[in-house]
């Protein structure tokens, strides 16, 4: 008989539901960084841990529950609901909820917790709606371990666990205090428990590997910092932290993890998951210096803001193997950007993109259609800006009122229509339902987004640039990508 695992971490997700057919070839398959960090934390406290990565293993909720109950016999199951970009937690709740139900169906005595961005944003609703015993409404690691200790004590002490929601006498009990954020990241969570993950299953984003399109694996994503000091209206990243914050691992700790990934697993492609990597000068340059001293030839991408990219960073980033920077450009309209709390102009955007590209670093531009002051004309201006910038890759999003964001608070206070199912928050799902505004309906916004995506990736100017920089294999890859048509409910309504 297998020995019981103290904490089983489950990474939920349904690639087909979230990405449709894009999940077959084009999307990344990313390791669950928070589940891996939390596993490290509880192990360092003396507990045993395991991880089931549902999307990486491509298994059903039913199979996940069977593995959890029969193979691991856990004292506590923690379903860690994060996304692979900062605001993509909610879309995984449909999968998370089904996994919890299936576990309880097989064995009602198994204790189940949910943690992550969405549960932290809506803890009481998560307790009410899902088949869980606990919800952690802040960061997670300490609350998880203290809950395990209370389970070991046969349920004595739940009321003393900070940030823990639980059930008592059939009622939902609220936490009496908040768990402080971890200050010693190096000492308490110095990296991900890679040995618990199916490392052969992960692959990088397609664009991340335009320099070597056939070598997207092995792949890893890591944090070098947690949180974000900014307060963009559409972002919910700080929900698990309770406030805008920014904490860093030391460059020395980060480089040890990269050493391990390269030397143990042969990883070349790495994502820095940080919402804002290019920010703190000492942190960025310190890590870049350590990377430059190694002969790894790694291929790294990271997030930056238009107003944080300084010339002093660029040569250091390129020399460290950071070949891509992802910029939140969002909109071409100053009015719309101001509403998103981003105060810089189009000339600033163009200047920064050109300086990044001049340094030899590629740019991924992120754009959002349908923010509160957007109109059809303003969305067209954004598409025109994207076409002018001609970044090496682009993501086009529709504005979503993610729980934990200012947009969600605005939408609920104004009684605006929100998705009925959590997976409808996915940008690529059949049922995707953007937030309408006073100028545009949800269907108009999503229709514009889909048209913008098609126009960008079939634009001869873009494909000529790709051919010159990356060659015919990448052009062929993009031509296959452009032929993928997402099925959408709005299209079915229009055809009816």
Task: Round the mean pLDDT to the nearest integer and report it.
Answer: 93
CATH architecture of the largest domain: Alpha-Beta Horseshoe
| Overall helicity | 40-55%
- Structural class of the helices, strands and pairings? alpha/beta
How many β-strand stretches? 15
Which strand order spans the largest sheet, edge to edge or round the barrel?
A: 2-1-3-4-5-6-7
Number of domain units? 2
Tertiary shape: globular
The CATH topology of the largest domain corresponds to pyruvate-formate lyase- activating enzyme
Low-confidence stretches: none
Describe this structure in words.
This protein has helices at residues 15-19, 22-25, 33-44, 54-57, 61-72, 93-106, 117-121, 123-129, 141-152, 185-188, 251-265, 281-292, 311-319, 334-339, 346-358, 376-389, 406-413, 442-457, 460-470, 472-482, 489-495; strands at 7-11, 49-53, 76-81, 111-116, 134-136, 164-168, 171-173, 219-222, 225-226, 247-248, 269-272, 299-304, 322-330, 362-369, 393-398. Strands 2-1-3-4-5-6-7 form a seven-stranded mixed beta sheet, with helices on both faces. A six-stranded parallel beta sheet has the order 8-11-12-13-14-15. A two-stranded antiparallel ribbon has the order 9-10. 41% of the residues lie in helices and 15% in strands. The protein is globular. The protein has two domains: 7-173, Response regulator (Rossmann fold, 3-Layer(aba) Sandwich); 208-399 and 434-495, tm_1862 like domain (pyruvate-formate lyase- activating enzyme), CATH 3.80.30.20. The protein has 496 residues and is of the alpha/beta class. The protein starts with 6 loop residues before the first strand and ends with a helix. It is built from 21 helices and 15 strands. The mean pLDDT is 93.
